[in-house]
């Protein structure tokens, strides 16, 4: 769902602020309501108890023995009328009733209620059980019609009248008090309780928020670091897969080129030295050498032809071997390797090669040195065969293990599209450079050809 995605996209801190804020506000209202109710009940009960104690101390001596008398006599009623109509009680009490256990009103300052019986309420039952009942509310009992007409909350108190020697409730005093100042006390109690609960909730929530915020920041940083690491690993994995594919292709291409190169060497041996040696072998079996009648001069001439053919065969074999065998370059510097291959090319082709070599002495692996030698050798051979050897030059720069070599000429150039994928020259060089993670670039045109090799030297073990 859309809202769930939006929620999950938020940080843990914002999720906590929203959820924790709602829960904290709800808990604050719940706890505040409970605490406020408890405080209000305690204030009302304490106020009612104080008033009940005062009223009981004034009224109880005027009452007869309610255990033996079920009707309030006229003298007691007159004494209560006088007591309740003047003095402090007259100012504080709004109404006064004396209840019997069956719900009959034995006395009331509202004379029309005396002798009437009403249903026994829960408050009255608890009072007869010996419990003081106090309420601060608008009167709602059936017998409290006059109090209800006032339209304002009053302190309603049910105080049990206990027999001194038995402790048994023999009657219940019910009276309504104006409770001046009680509403202000309750308002202050509510305000203080709500303020206390709100302050404690805020402190608790802010403390937890600070901890969650720090934890969320730490998790976000770790998540971002993990995401970066995953991104790096994904990139490295893709690069590794690309390199593996590149390596497999290079290996397949190298195997094909190696087979083609062996066929070329076989063809060179067959078409060159083998022909001369075959010619010499045929001449050795000729009648001219085995016939006694052959003159010495003719025999020497025939042997001279044989020696000449064998000499040409040896020359061609040496030429082929020189192309196959590398000089000792493992311990040579790049500068020495380049000069050797350039001097060999100049001696073989009787041409000159301009050279510019900048070598900082970086340590190069044997594979890189071999690649440098073969690259310059093949590029110069191509410059001689296809470009006529016009203004050949070699420019090399080796710095911090990065090798960049250019071999150029100013011949007629060639079409790069004419390079056969199965060829042994530039195609083989491209595979060799590619297998080492380097790049080979060819720029050719009417003004000449430039072949550039760039690679990073790698420290790797030599394979024997």
TrEMBL record:
Q: Which UniProt keywords apply?
A: Kinase, Membrane, Plasmid, Transferase, Transmembrane, Transmembrane helix, Two-component regulatory system
* Classification via SMART domains: HATPase_c
* Keyword Acetylation included in the entry's annotation: no
> What's the Enzyme Commission number for this chain?
2.7.13.3
Q: Its GO biological process terms?
A: phosphorelay signal transduction system
InterPro entries reported in the protein's UniProt record: HATPase_C_sf, HATPase_dom, His_kinase_dom, Sensor_HK_TwoCompSys, Sig_transdc_His_kin-like_C
- Report the SUPFAM superfamilies cross-referenced here: ATPase domain of HSP90 chaperone/DNA topoisomerase II/histidine kinase (SSF55874)
Q: Which stretches are transmembrane?
A: 12-35, 194-213
Pfam families, alphabetically? HATPase_c
Q: What is this protein called?
A: histidine kinase
Q: Which organism is it from?
A: Rhizobium grahamii
Q: Can you give the residue ranges of the Histidine kinase domain? A: 372-459
Q: Which GO terms describe its molecular function?
A: protein histidine kinase activity
Please give the superkingdom of this protein's source.
Bacteria
Keyword Transmembrane helix belongs to the record: yes
Reaction(s) catalysed by this chain's protein: ATP + protein L-histidine = ADP + protein N-phospho-L-histidine
Q: Which PANTHER family match?
A: NITRATE/NITRITE SENSOR PROTEIN NARX-RELATED, NITRATE_NITRITE SENSOR PROTEIN NARQ
């Amino acid at each position: 769902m859309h809202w769930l995605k939006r929620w999950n996209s938020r940080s843990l801190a914002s999720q906590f602020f929203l959820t924790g804020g709602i829960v904290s506000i709800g808990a604050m209202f719940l706890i505040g309501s409970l605490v406020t109710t408890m405080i209000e009940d305690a204030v009302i009960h304490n106020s009612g108890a104080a008033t009940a104690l005062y009223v009981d101390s004034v009224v109880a001596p005027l009452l007869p023995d309610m255990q033996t008398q079920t009707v309030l006599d006229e003298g007691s009623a007159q004494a209560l009328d006088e007591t309740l109509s003047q003095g402090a009680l007259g100012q504080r009490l709004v109404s006064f009733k004396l209840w019997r256990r069956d719900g009959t009103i034995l006395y009331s300052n509202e004379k029309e209620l005396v002798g009437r019986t009403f249903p026994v309420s829960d408050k009255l039952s608890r009072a007869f059980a010996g419990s003081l009942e106090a309420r601060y509310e608008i009167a709602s009992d059936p017998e409290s019609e006059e109090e209800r007409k006032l339209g304002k909350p009053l302190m309603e108190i049910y105080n049990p009248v206990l027999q001194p020697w038995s402790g048994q409730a023999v009657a219940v005093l019910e009276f309504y008090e104006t409770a001046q100042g009680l509403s202000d006390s309750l308002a202050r109690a509510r305000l203080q309780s709500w303020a206390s609960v709100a302050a404690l909730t805020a402190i608790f929530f802010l403390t937890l928020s600070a901890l969650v915020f720090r934890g969320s920041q730490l998790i976000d940083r770790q998540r971002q670091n993990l995401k970066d690491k995953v991104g790096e690993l994904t990139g490295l994995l893709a690069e590794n897969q690309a390199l593996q594919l590149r390596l497999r292709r290079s290996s397949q291409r190298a195997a094909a080129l190696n087979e083609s190169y062996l066929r070329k060497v076989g063809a060179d041996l067959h078409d060159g030295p083998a022909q001369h040696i075959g010619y010499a072998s045929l001449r050795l079996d000729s009648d001219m050498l085995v016939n006694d009648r052959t003159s010495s001069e003719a025999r020497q001439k025939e042997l001279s032809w044989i020696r000449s053919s064998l000499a040409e065969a040896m020359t061609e074999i040496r030429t082929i071997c020189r192309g196959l065998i590398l000089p000792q370059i493992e311990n040579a510097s790049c500068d020495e390797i380049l000069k050797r291959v350039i001097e060999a090319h100049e001696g073989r082709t009787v041409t000159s090669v301009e050279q510019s070599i900048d070598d900082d002495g970086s340590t190069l692996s044997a594979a890189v040195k071999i690649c440098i030698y073969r690259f310059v050798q093949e590029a110069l051979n191509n410059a001689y065969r296809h470009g006529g050897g016009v203004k050949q030059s070699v420019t090399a720069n080796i710095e911090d293990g990065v090798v960049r070599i250019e071999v150029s000429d100013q011949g007629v150039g060639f079409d790069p599209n004419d390079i056969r994928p199965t060829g042994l020259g530039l195609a083989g060089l491209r595979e060799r450079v590619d297998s080492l993670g380097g790049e080979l670039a060819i720029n050719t045109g009417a003004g000449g050809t430039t072949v550039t090799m760039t690679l990073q030297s790698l420290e790797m073990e030599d394979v024997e």
